[in-house]
Amino acid sequence: MSSELVIRRYDGPGTLGLKEPILRVYGASHEQPIRNDPWFSEEKFWQRLVDLYAPGRDFEMVSGWLGGEMIGYAFGSPRDDSAANWQQVKAALPDFPTPDTPEPIYIFREFAVHPHRQGQGHGRRLHDELLAKRPERLAHLLVRVDNAQARGAYTSWGWQRIGSTQPFPDAPVLDVMVRALPLYAEGSR
Description:
This protein has 189 residues and is of the alpha+beta class. The chain has eight helices and seven strands; from the N terminus they run βααααββαβαβαββα. It has a seven-stranded mixed beta sheet with strand order 1-2-3-4-5-7-6, with helices on both faces. The N and C termini lie far apart (42 Å).
């Protein structure tokens, strides 16, 4: 059994063909919120993935595998209708250069690492792999207000909290975080 993390990339249809391993990681890593809030149930997560995320333009999932078993994933896609996101960025980060006309923002939609594999650098590698070649200048994510561990990791990886939102009527209020993407950050030096 190899101890080297193998990174694999999938488009929407490829991602949907991995329901069992994705739900195994999701269920283990989201055990507490699943118990406390029906919005986090495996069924609702999978429904959002099938109906909203995977069909989106330029959807991609990066997954990590050890010994033939998926141990984590990260996925996202660009949001073209991004005027409200840019307004929130402009209000919270007045020094960040915002476009005159809204341009796509990359939405870092979901990220999970199996609890038995956390704290080993795998999450950071998946995060970085997903974002490394994105052409958008800014990435956006939502994180549970009560998830200090995730917020701490995101902050250490360059994300900044800019507010909060309730993305769906049945969703909890979540913190909004953003960060410049690597290709943009390299070009602005």
